[in-house]
Amino acid sequence: MKTLFPELRSLRPAATVHQEIDEELQFHFDALVEEFESDGMSTDEATEKAVAHFGSLQFYDQQCRDIAFADRWSVSSGSLAVCLAVIVGCGLLASVLAWRSANQESQIANLQSRVDELNSRLVEMPAKHIAREIKGTIVDVDDKPIRDVDVMVTVKTWPQGMYSQVEHLTKTDVNGRFVLRDKLPEFGDYEIHVAVSHEGLAFQSQYLDALKPGEHDSPYHFFDFQLAPSATRKIQLLDEAGTPLSNALVIPSQRFAADGRQHTIYMQSSQPVRQKTDDQGYFRLKNFGEGDGAEIIVSLANGWEEAISFEADQAPVNIRVNTRSHVVLKK
Amino acid sequence: MTAKKSKSAFPQGSLDMLILKSLETEPRHGYGIARHLRETSREFIQLEEGSLYPALHRMEKRGWIQSEWGQSESNRRAKYYQLSKAGKKQLGIETDAWQKMVEAIQRVMSPVALEGKS
User: Fold this and answer.
1) Which of A271, A274, A136, A145 is nearest to A205 (CA)?
2) Is the separation of the CB atoms in A232 and A284 below 8 Å?
3) What is the mean pLDDT of chain A?
4) What is the mean predicted confidence (pLDDT) over A188-217?
5) Mutation site for B-interface testing, chosen from A61, A67, A69, A71 by largest number of B Cβ within 10 Å
6) Nearest CB neighbour to B61, from listed A23, A31, A67
């Protein structure tokens, strides 16, 4: 049926169209990797050559999507719009015929302008979707995609009035892309927080709040990040007597960037960035930019836990704590 | 000295024709089309292979080709394209225009060689 009436294809759900484009391009890319591997290359070499051969998956993916949706709305609003257009068109056509019989040419012109106006309004009607995917791209300061970036996605929902927070971890592919499917609710408000981190680069986060299913301009939420180089700082953790605190858990949770923006990593999803102090109580504050302020959460084996923060350009050389929660930052 | 291979080593605007020609004999998926172009041109055509897909999707919208999901040689699901009637007609039009273009260029480049033919 769809072969006989190719236009029916354009009435398939947007998520299906997107998934098929992804699958089609990924098949080609994987076939290239296999071809080069069979020529004797390692997987890394073959992947690199496949990228050079294929070009940007993201770019061509987006081009295909643009073509797919160039002349339609989503199924729901599209169908509605078509029905409206037919109903309005039939009504107006009947009116036009009636006016014609009465020889009232000027009124026909008025009707035509109303048809044009309605058509223009329909064309402007934005498509609305239930978002199914959380996706994005991560590049460096030279706009080159970064692979294997840790992506920490937190989805907040309020089912039956109860707060729920679910964390998901993933990594970017060779094209710096990440995608999570079917992690969003079909009913009820939700919020999305995405934090990304990679060795040698300053971590970033983005937040989308007050989201509602079925009210989005696309079937996915897209996050793009451009990560700048980080500057590693070595900081010593001491107890109240000045003794180094070894094996303490240190979790960077906030980055106060020099540009004034604040980036957050939720404690529960922070596995990729958490670390422990060494025998001398030292830890490395990685994933922060030069001069950034920070908040870190320090946990000791005895259950003591404290959030410690310092302003931009105030990085301490050591942090002295005691189990009664007193914290002294020494510059 | 060998000819330098370039990713733009074929004339602008001829991609549609090359894709239609690749599908003339059998249905192929995008990777199959790319590989066919590489092999039949003896590696001279080195297009950025992702660029096939916007072209394929555009041509499908125009009704020149039709697609169907099938099983690939590696047992993975793959999208196969085949020529439609409109596509065969379009291939004829583009082939004709291409031959006229080649002849015209040939006349400019080697006027003597073609003298006897005209």
Assistant:
1) A136
2) yes
3) 79
4) 87
5) A67
6) A67
Nearest to B56 by CA among B107, B1, B15, B94: B15
A53 and B30 within 8 Å at the Cβ level: the answer is no
Q: Quick check: helix, strand or coil at residue A63?
A: helix
The answer to whether residue A234 scores a pLDDT higher than 70 is yes
Tell me if chain B has a CB within 8 Å of the CB of A54: yes
φ and ψ of A220, to 5 deg:
-150, 160
Q: Is the pLDDT of residue A228 over 90?
A: yes
- C-alpha–C-alpha distance, residues A185 and A163, integer Å: 13
Query: Which residues in chain B land under pLDDT 70?
Result: 1-13, 112-118
**What is d(CA A312, CA A223) in angstroms, rounded to the nearest whole number?**
26
| ipTM of predicted complex | 0.86
What's the whole-number mean pLDDT along residues A27-56?
90
**Measured on CA atoms in the order B5, B6, B7, B8, is the torsion positive or negative?**
negative
| Dihedral sign (CA A149, A150, A156, A159) | positive
- Minimum-distance CB partner of B77 among A23, A32, A35: A23
Q: For A71-113, how does the pLDDT look when each residue is reduced to its tens digit (9 = 90+)? A: 554 444 444 455 455 555 656 666 555 555 555 666 666 666 6
The residues pairing with A152 across neighbouring beta strands, listed in sequence order, are A169, A195
Q: Which residue has the tokens 């073609």?
A: B114
Please indicate whether, in this complex, the C-beta atoms of A25 and B53 are within 8 angstroms of each other.
Answer: yes
Chain centroid offset of residue A157 CA: 17
Instruction: Indicate the angle between helix axes B15-22 and B85-109, nearest 10 degrees.
Output: 130
A109/A277: higher pLDDT: A277
List, as one string, the DSSP characters of A263-306: EE--GGG-TTT-EE--TTSEEEE-S--TT-EEEEEEE-TTS-EE
A255 and A294 Cβ atoms separated by less than 8 Å: yes
Instruction: Answer for the pair B58, B98: CB distance below 8 angstroms, yes or no.
Output: no
- Residue positions counted in chain A: 331
Q: What is the reported pLDDT for A52? A: 86
Q: Can you give the pLDDT at residue A212?
A: 81
